[in-house]
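The instructor's notes for this session suggest beginning with a concrete chain rather than abstract definitions. Hand out the sequence below and ask the class to guess, before any prediction is shown, which regions might be ordered.
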Amino acid sequence: MAIGDRIQNQFMVYRDLYTGMEIERLTEPNHVSHHMYFYNRMSTGDGKKLLYCAEFEERQLYLMDMETGEAVQLTEGGGLDDYGGIISSTDKHVYYQQDKVIWKLALSGLERECVYRIAGGWRGDSWTVSDDGRYLAVIETLEESLPKREKGEGWDFFAKTCLAKPHCRIIYVDLVSGTVRTVVEEDCWLGHVQIRPGDSDTIMFCHEGPYDLIDARLWLVQSDGSRCRCCREQPSDLILTHEFWLPDGSKLAFVYRETTGGKREDIRMINPDTMEEEIWMRCSPYAHFICDRQNRYMVGDAQGSDVPIHLLGKETAEETAEEKPEEVRNDFIYLVDVEKRREQKLCYHGTSWSAVHGNPQDSHPHPCFTEDGKYVIFVSDREGAPCIYRVNLQQYRDK
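After discussion, reveal the predicted structure:
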């Protein structure tokens, strides 16, 4: 298959057994499909087209018309970052990484241009584009500082990479002037770089790794490398995870989860200018969560097991799969009404959280919203290979 080829997805509708919500499966369970990483802009502004990955002979990016199911292939060949695609704020381009190059692809004619080439000997990991499309931030890791990773390895790599303290740096690129500079460089596994909306000078990133092995997860730095600061302390029995910027950039939000004692779980927020922390509301045990562009709702994927994701093994996944409906764990998608600060079960995702599909991320639900706020999109392998599902939120509003 080649760039420009078209495929036809067959949609399937079912009603959730636990909430009564109508769910639509957008891809088929005979091959792996997943959307982009959950805080990336992956749908067009009108919510009608979705950037996603499908694996046939190999994994490639596609743009799906979510009204008809038809999808056009955007990439070909190997070396693809299959979670890293971003649709530009103008809906005219897609940014993606392949063969150590960040490409800008025009959706009108599918021509592409190189906007940044990763240096030899380095690997491009997390990366993002500012909301105005001018700046690019990329985390690069010196390849020789990484431990050897076996093909098909599951979550074993997580602690191994953290303990290796790989040499990482954050690169900041002005896509207009071509200026490139190093913002942060240290012997620490860095991840999840995100440029602040409305303030492209402020960058959020994390110290990646198991919660009990890192010093602290949440960090901010200015684009010139100044004011590199930790957002909050993190005791070794506390999980802080999957931080994101609110759409207006006013705060960063994250999940606070205690692994001992009362095992409290909150949505919390930090003002990046004052570092004041707000306990926003109690919540279910979300693995990932995010809000819509209108800041009307949040969505999170609960993990029924108390075992952190990176410690889930094959036995845990099989045990979950064998459970009877009446014994179902809390593997639900939750919708949070921002104004009321109240969560409600939206639907059962029922995924295995397993790392057996080729990438440890593949069966994570990673719920998110279409840009117009009308749908929640998530991934589950409940029917076989990971598939993409969506829920029309008008059903929730009509209740």
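Then share the key points. The longest strand covers residues 122-129. The first helix runs from residue 156 to 164.
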